[in-house]
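I am sending you the entry underneath: sequence plus C-alpha cells. Let me know what the C-alpha cell row says about the fold:
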Amino acid sequence: MIVRGAAAETQAADYLTRHGLKIVARNWRCRQGEIDLIARDGDTLVFVEVRARADARFGGAAASITAAKQARVVMAARHYLQTISPLPPCRFDAVCVDGGRLQWLKGCFDAG
C-alpha cells in the first residue's frame, strides 16, 4: 500500500505516539515554512518532517529532505519557538515511509 500526504502524517503521528511522544501540533505553518508534526519527547520539543515515497529508488524518502527543505523547517521552528517560553531542548527528526515501510530518524539534521 502506498501511503501519501496526510495519510503518511497520520501514520507517523500514530507511530510516534505509540513510542511515547505527545503530538503538540500538526501542519504548523508560518510565512517561513511548514512543520509536519511538533511533538514532545519528555522535555525535548521535536520538529518532525514526514516524507513518503512509493519505493526507495532514487534515494527514497530520506534523500528527499534536501538542505533547502531542512533550512525551511529550521526557519519555521525558530518562528515557532518565539511563541513559547521557556525554550526547551529541541531536536529535528524525520519519519520516512518508503513503500509502506516506516523509518524514524531521530536527530537527522540540526539547526546549524
Notes: The helical segments are 5-18, 60-63, 67-81.
